[in-house]
Write a structure and sequence with these properties.
The protein has one domain. About 65% of the residues lie in helices and about 0% in strands. The protein is built from 17 helices and no strands. α10 packs antiparallel against α14 and α13 crosses α16. It starts with 9 loop residues before the first helix and ends with a helix.
Length: about 450
């Protein structure tokens, strides 16, 4: 059937208008769905993640309990203008999106806990919206676009981290901002230098190591000499913004300071070997395995069982459904990568995406302990690669794929949500025990001793 039209025919423009409107609805809807989910979870749980004044930072009841997260310290960074927990040596421009909007809302009468929830939920919504935008720019099939977004929302990374007071959703949003820029400019073949500088600044704003995405963008579109200039400009802009933070916070971090605690995250034994790290990054971040009741802060052989972790878990452990899902996810990932390698006509976006994934894997072979913590930095990139590969399928192969994903995604959501519901009481039990002991002035040693006595 001939689908061509004369240039003056209104049908193509009407069709294009409908598609465009549908894409906008999809992107905006993705933002609001993720925002509402995150805000609901945060609003109901923020009381068990706050920083307790009068208790030392290292003895905060919520610290490290939820898969090594720093929820109370991030909360402090978002509510206090005079704290070293801003950690601007590692998170250079976080105060602009953390404490600044929270304090601005407080001046308007919004309580600080609610302000924190709104800012964090906005970060989650922005992450989902940018993921949707990239899908729209790079994938043809609307069915595959919708299923990829639902896949992301069903992943263990989204389910377990969208309601936690952490920087990672905002960090993921900066990664996806750069990725969206690459997707857009790949079609235009060139990036304005000013835009490249802006995207580089965005990439390193929340987490310094995410600058790799800005550097990859520069290397993808420019010669080495120009890429170096862009990097220098980005550093100068970031440095200027870093100094300007002193207008609203007490700058208590040096840009070149590396604390001794952070060095424990380099080649740590807890994360295991290469295989276990890859399993955690590529498997646990999508399909949650059995949760073990110890974490990096306890040590692998600890008996106190204060922390929740998955670093030592086997993929898909805990239930038959989990095992089947992780096998299915492995097949999806491998087959999509093979199709991508064989059939996809590579663009600068594809090379950027592949090197970004390899960069994240390489980074966390060296740095990190509970690698599930970094899931929101990795999973969107993996799912974009999967979508790019499956985008090449046609006819019966695509129908089979869509049908399979329609079964897989709901089961994945059910599994991860059920695991999350089971994990919350485990967290709250440990949080309450630590809260009661710490508020009475017990030391860390007394806390561990008391918890050992309480073990059945």
């Amino acid at each position: 059937m001939d689908m061509s039209y004369e240039p003056n025919s209104p049908k193509p423009s009407a069709h294009a208008s409908r598609i465009h409107a549908g894409q906008v609805v999809f992107i905006v809807g993705s933002f609001f769905v993720a925002f509402v989910i995150s805000l609901t979870l945060l609003y109901n749980q923020i009381d068990s993640q706050v920083f307790h004044e009068g208790t030392r930072s290292g003895e905060q009841p919520a610290l490290n309990v939820w898969f090594d997260s720093n929820a109370p310290l991030v909360y402090l960074a978002m509510t206090s203008t005079d704290t070293s927990m801003q950690m601007t040596n590692r998170h250079p421009l976080f105060p602009y999106v953390g404490v600044l909007p929270v304090k601005a809302m407080w001046l308007l009468g919004v309580p600080e806990p609610v302000g924190v929830c709104l800012v964090l939920a906005f970060g989650v919504g922005l992450m989902a919206g940018l993921f949707a935008l990239i899908l729209v720019m790079t994938i043809e099939s609307m069915a595959l676009i919708w299923l990829s977004q639902l896949f992301f929302l069903a992943s263990s990374s989204f389910v377990f981290w969208s309601g936690i007071c952490e920087r990672f959703p905002l960090g993921s949003a900066t990664i996806l901002s750069v990725t969206a820029g690459v997707a857009y400019y790949s079609k235009k073949k060139t990036v304005p230098v000013a835009m490249a500088v802006i995207l580089n600044v965005i990439s390193l704003s929340i987490t310094l190591t995410n600058w790799m995405f800005g550097l990859l963008l520069s290397l993808s579109f420019f010669k080495i000499k120009t890429a170096i200039k862009i990097s220098v400009y980005a550093l100068l802009v970031t440095l200027a913004l870093w100094f300007m933070e002193q207008l609203f916070i007490e700058q208590r971090n040096s840009l070149v300071h590396v604390d001794s605690w952070n060095q424990r995250y380099i080649f740590g034994d807890y994360a295991g070997g290469i295989y276990q790290k890859i399993v955690a990054l590529l498997g646990h971040t999508v399909v949650i395995p059995n949760i073990h009741l110890y974490g990096f802060a306890d040590g692998v052989s600890a008996e106190s069982h204060q922390m929740l972790g998955v670093a030592q878990s086997a993929p898909g452990s805990g239930s038959l459904l989990g095992l089947l899902l992780v096998i299915a996810w492995g097949l999806i990932l491998i087959s999509a990568v093979l199709v991508w390698l064989i059939k996809t006509e590579k663009t600068k976006f594809d090379y950027f995406l592949s090197f970004s994934i390899l960069g994240q894997i390489s980074l966390h072979m060296i740095y990190g302990v509970e690698l599930f913590l970094y899931g929101l930095h990795v999973v969107p990139l993996l799912l974009l690669l999967v979508a790019r590969g499956f985008n090449e399928l046609r006819g019966a192969a695509r129908h089979v794929l869509i049908s399979s994903l329609c079964v897989f995604v709901p089961l994945l959501a059910f599994h991860n949500i059920a695991a999350y519901v089971e994990a919350r009481p485990l967290y709250l039990e440990r949080y309450e025990e630590r809260l009661q002991l710490f508020v009475h002035g017990a030391s860390s040693e007394e806390v561990e001793s008391q918890l050992e006595i309480q073990e059945p």
